[in-house]
Design a protein that fits this description.
The protein has 11 helices and 9 strands. It is of the alpha/beta class. It has one domain (13-325): Aldolase class I (TIM Barrel, Alpha-Beta Barrel). Strand 1, helix 2 and strand 2 (80-86) form a beta-alpha-beta unit. The longest helix is centred in the middle third of the chain and has 21 residues, at 132-152.
C-alpha cells in the first residue's frame, strides 16, 4: 500500500498531528485486506512540514503513542507496518483537497519554507528561504522522527523525496536557485536529501529497510531547468551507496505547469530505467489497477515490487481478491472455485 494522505488529524491543541480512529480503521482495513506492506501517509517531521493543518506528524510523544497502536495492529495481521517521513516545503499550509486544496494563509496556517523564495504557483505565497542552520535542524528532525517511528513499531521507513515537497524542491533546478553549498550543481542540490538519508540511516537499524521516494521527472518541456530521469539514476546510485534499500519511483508534483501523459502504468518505464542503469531495487506505482498488470511488472523485471494507491482506496481487499488468501474470519464469505 502506497502512502496516501488522509487530511484527518486534529488541527490544533495538544492533539495536533495525532492520528486517530480514522487512521486506525483506514490502515487496519488494508492490513486485513492482504497488502504485504502497509505504508502510513506522508507524516511531517515538524509542524511547518505538514501539507495541511490536518496532516499527521511524528515530532512529539502523543503522535508516537497513537502511531504505536496502529503499527501494532498492522503487524499482528502478519503485515509489515511502514511510514513515510516528509516535509512539504513550499507546498505546505494548504487546505484539505475536498475543500479546494489552496493555501490557507498565515492566519489559519503558517508561512512555508523552501530552498529558494519561489512560490509553487501564482496562488501560493512566497516561501521563506531556509538558512543553512535551519537546514541542519530539519536534517535532525528527520532523524528524530525515524527514532520515534522505530519505537512506535514501524519496520519500514520511507523518506519522501518526491512530489514537489522539500527534498524534491532542493533536487530540482526548477525550484532551487541557491548559490551556496545546497544549490547549483547536481552534487549541491542533492546534498540536503543525502544528509537526511545519512542521518536517518544512522538511527534506523541496518536490518530494517529504508526506502526513498523519488519523482523521476518534473514533466517539464526539454530545455527548461528541471529534474530529469538521468539525474534520478545518478541520485539512486548515491542513495543505494548510503544504505537505501529500495527506490520508490513516482514522478511530477514540483511544477504547476507540468504536463503528465497519464495512462496505465505510466511511471513503470522510469522504475525500469532506474533498476537497469543504477542497479538498485525499485518499486513501481501509478495507475496499476489489475492483478495481472502488477504481476507482469514484477515477473518481467521492470520493478522489484508494486505499490498500489487509489486501487486500494477503492477496494481495501484488492490483494486477497487477487491471491485468494482470505483472512480466516472472512473465508466463509470468500468466492468459491467453480
Amino acid at each position: 500500500m502506497s502512502p496516501m494522505c488522509q487530511y484527518s488529524a486534529a488541527v490544533d491543541g495538544p492533539d495536533t498531528g495525532v492520528p486517530h480512529d480514522w487512521h486506525f480503521a483506514h490502515l487496519a482495513a488494508r492490513a486485513v485486506g492482504g497488502a504485504g506492506l502497509v505504508m502510513a501517509e506522508a507524516t511531517a517531521v515538524s509542524p511547518e512540514g505538514r501539507i495541511s493543518p490536518a496532516d499527521t506528524g511524528l515530532w512529539n510523544d502523543a503522535q508516537e503513542a497513537a502511531w504505536e497502536r496502529i503499527a501494532r495492529f498492522v503487524h499482528a495481521q502478519g503485515v509489515i507496518p511502514g511510514i513515510q517521513l516528509a516535509h512539504a516545503g513550499r507546498k505546505a499550509s494548504t487546505d484539505r483537497p475536498w475543500l479546494g486544496g489552496g493555501p490557507v494563509g498565515a492566519e489559519h496556517g503558517w508561512t512555508p519554507v523552501a530552498p529558494s523564495p519561489i512560490p509553487f504557483s501564482e496562488s501560493h505565497p512566497v516561501p521563506d528561504e531556509l538558512t543553512t542552520a535551519e537546514i541542519g535542524k530539519l536534517v535532525e528532525a528527520f532523524a528524530t522522527a525515524a527514532e520515534r517511528a522505530l519505537r512506535a513499531g514501524f519496520r519500514v521507513v520511507e523518506i519522501h523525496g518526491a512530489h514537489g515537497y522539500l527534498i524534491h524542491e532542493f533536487l530540482s533546478p526548477h525550484s532551487n536557485h541557491r548559490a551556496d553549498a545546497y544549490g547549483g550543481t547536481f552534487e549541491n542540490r542533492a546534498r540536503f536529501g543525502l544528509e537526511v538519508v545519512d542521518a536517518v540511516r544512522a538511527v534506523w537499524p541496518r536490518e530494517l529497510p529504508l526506502f526513498f521516494r523519488v519523482s523521476a521527472t518534473d514533466w517539464l518541456p526539454e530545455g527548461e531547468p528541471a529534474w530529469t530521469p538521468g539525474q534520478t539514476v545518478m541520485l539512486a546510485a548515491e542513495l543505494a551507496a548510503r544504505g537505501v534499500d529500495l527506490i520508490d519511483v513516482s514522478s511530477g508534483g514540483n511544477a504547476s505547469t507540468q504536463r503528465i501523459p497519464l495512462g496505465p502504468g505510466y511511471q513503470v518505464p522510469f522504475a525500469r530505467q532506474i533498476r537497469a542503469e543504477a542497479g538498485v531495487p525499485v518499486s513501481a506505482v501509478g495507475l496499476i489497477t489489475e492483478p495481472e498488470q502488477a504481476e507482469r511488472i514484477v515477473a518481467t523485471g521492470q520493478a522489484d515490487a508494486v505499490f498500489l494507491g487509489r486501487a486500494l482506496l477503492r477496494d481495501p481487499y484488492w490483494p486477497v481478491r487477487a491471491s485468494g488468501q482470505w483472512p480466516a474470519q472472512y473465508r466463509r464469505a470468500a468466492p468459491q472455485p467453480r
